[in-house]
Write a structure and sequence with these properties.
The chain is of the alpha/beta class and 253 residues long. The chain folds into 2 domains: 160 residues, 3-Layer(aba) Sandwich (Rossmann fold); 62 residues, no CATH class. 40% of the residues lie in helices and 25% in strands. The chain contains 10 helices and 10 strands. A 6-stranded mixed sheet has the order 6-7-8-3-9-10, with helices on both faces. Strand 1 and strand 2 form a beta hairpin. The model has no long low-confidence stretch (mean pLDDT 89).
Amino acid sequence: MSPEAILDVRDVSVRFGGVMAVRGASLQLRDGEVVGLIGPNGAGKSSLLGAMGGQIPVTGGQVRLAGHDVTAAPPHRRARLGLVRTFQLASTFEGLTVYENLLVSAMQARGSRLWGSLAGGRERRAQLAAAAEATWSRLDEFDMAGLANSYGAELSGGQRRLVEIMRCLMQSPRALLLDEPMVGVAPHLVERIGAECARIRDSGVSIIIVEHALEVVQAVCDRVVVMALGAVVAQATYAEAMSSGAVREAYFT
């Protein structure tokens, strides 16, 4: 793995029964970049993302994270090493406020339970105070403080996506996996989330984004990895990939 790579996927395969969803896929995510993982429906993108995140077991190959072999590691161990992800369906806690959604994530990152911290104890109170400060800082950073007391169930699709991304960032990750973050999002918030992805990258968090909205991929990603029929068929800049015969065949035939 090159010194600047945070995530290194080597010849990974994923099988579901008799179906090979991912066929010997390899890619790297380097520090300070956004990589678009693109391809037509059924290409294996989400399956590969699940293999990277630890939600889906691999049939073959290796996943290395921050220099560690995490091929068989569960998601929570990968999170401790700096890898977190979102899913196609936004997963905010609908019965909690936006503030509470973030606070729970901040306390988890500090290895403590929120409600246990509320019970008392100097160390626990200090942890809660630090988590509260970090929560308000993140809300201000995303210009979401005005929604702090809104419940998850009251949010629009795009607002839920932003809360989900903020919750991931409360874990202080080095790498963030985003699975179709623009699904169900109004156009004005699509642009907003794209801008936030660029800003997150500039803050030092690398991103892999699975996305069908190619205009977002073009605007946000430093390069793309293109999949078709479970295999990686191209790794290049967006412009180079779109001029590739293999990519055109994958999308348009």
